[in-house]
Amino acid sequence: MTAARGTMGYMAPELFYKNIGGVSYKADVYSFGMLLMEMAGKRKNLNPYVDQSSEIYFPSWIYDQIREGKEIQTEDASDIEKELVKKMIIVAMWCIQMKPIERPSMNKVIEMLEGDLELLVMPPKPLICPQETPGTEDQELD
Questions:
Q1: Beta partners for 46?
Q2: DSSP 19-88
Q3: Within 13 A of 72's CA, how many CA atoms are on the CB side?
Q4: Can you tell me the distance from the alpha carbon of 43 to that of 51, in angstroms, rounded to the nearest whole number?
Q5: pLDDT value for 46
Q6: In 10 A of CB 81, how many CB atoms?
Q7: d(Cα 70, Cα 76) in Å, to the nearest integer?
Q8: Residue range 94-120, pLDDT digits in tens
Q9: What is the per-residue pLDDT across 28-57, written as a single tens digit (0 to 9) for each?
């Protein structure tokens, strides 16, 4: 690959940061995760025009909301719809993990979306830029 092409915000970090893993099908998983996050949150993932600076990067902000047990604001949504939104966000967070090896395969993504919310485990908090995290090179979620 000689040049990275795609829409900013949807392009996987490994297209820019070579030290986090090679380009593979997991780049598509990342893009799908960003799209899924936008669908669930009904907003762009990177929004400089929000009222609070903590809300600029939506995946990081919503992660904190879920982790703290706060209800996701969905206007006029039924309990089933709220559960579906939460499931979509958790699956999306798995898809947008910084390192490709930490992202699920699309088969696993489908399995998580079709499964029960109670069976989903919260992933690590999604990062905006890579950090050295020793010990994660051997882990893969398939």
A1: 57
A2: GG---STHHHHHHHHHHHHHHHHTS-SB-TTSSSGGGSBHHHHHHHHHHTTPPP--TT--HHHHHHHHHH
A3: 27
A4: 14
A5: 58
A6: 11
A7: 17
A8: 999 999 999 999 999 999 999 999 999
A9: 999 999 999 888 877 665 555 555 544 556
C-alpha Rg value of the chain to the nearest Å? 15
Structure token digits, residue 117: 């919310």
Show the tokens assigned to 110: 């489908």
pLDDT of residue 40: 85
Among the listed residues 126, 116, 67, 125, the one whose alpha carbon sits nearest the alpha carbon of residue 87: 116
Number of Cβ atoms within 10 Å of the Cβ of 13: 19
Q: Within 10 A of 20 (CB to CB), how many other CB atoms are there?
A: 22
Q: 65-70 — which CB contacts under 8 Å span 24+ positions?
A: 66/90, 66/122, 67/122, 67/125
The whole-chain average pLDDT of the chain stands at 79
> Bigger pLDDT: 3 or 63?
63
Paired tokens of 6:
């795609």
Is residue 97 within 8 A of residue 126, CB to CB? The reply is: yes
Select from 40, 31, 37, 32 the least CA-distant residue to 13: 31
